[in-house]
Amino acid sequence: MSGPVAIDGNLEGPRAYADRTKSLDTILDKDREVIKDNGEVAHSSELASFRVTELLLPNSETYYGALLGNIPEGRGKYLWSDGCIYEGEWRRGMRHGIGKTSWPSGAVYEGEFSGGYMHGAGTYIGSDSLNYKGRWRLNLKHGLGYQVYPNGDIFEGSWIQGLPEGPGKYTWVHGNAYIGNMKGGKMSGKGTLTWTNGDSFEGSWLNGMMHGFGVYTWSDGGFYVGTWTRGLKDGKGSFYPRGSRLPAVEELYLNA
């Protein structure tokens, strides 16, 4: 069995994980001979009970911990030939419960597993210093989570299938901040971006660009109400000087 692999693009390893997260039954087959504590070779039919021991597998991988027969059950540690390590709880030969997976690159995941997958609440620290703490589903960030990117940017909010999606807040390392809806990891839907110079845009976004109806407000209090197309004003709008009040119809649209 090869080492465990996470699926998100920010995590270690390729997407081919089917043989890395399934049961160890293929290795610890009931018909396979294993090494007993005293070094003798024994058939698994002799070992259908709980015990704690070390298994040295033909593929140079090692398991040390609790077994039920020849299947990991309870707490144990598995060392893959490529240097990956899992230490934690097992159920029916799969990582299940609380545990920790370490990759040779230095990346680490610590948290909940289910059926061999990172699933539930957990923290991942990448070899590039990416740090994510939150919910997981089948090896992907899924649910509410907080991530610090390698460059210092931060996203806190909803994740779906490994990407920011739904309501959240993205803060750039230089101080700009976006609060609103995300889709596929980009600003999409309704949201407000505030720049460090005091300017802001509140309105509709598409693929990370202002797109649709919105209000751009300058730091001096003046604002422009109109429509944008892929980040550019398309000429359909009005400018209001400082001290003006947003027309009721536009305010109603923004708050819809």
From TrEMBL:
Q: Which residues form the signal peptide?
A: none
Q: Choose one Gene Ontology CC annotation of this protein and give it.
A: membrane
Q: Which Pfam families match?
A: MORN
Q: Which domain of life is it from?
A: Eukaryota
* Keyword check for Repeat: yes
Coiled-coil region(s) at which residues? none
Bilayer-spanning residue ranges: none
Going by the UniProt record, its keywords in alphabetical order are: Repeat
Name of the molecule in the record? Uncharacterized protein
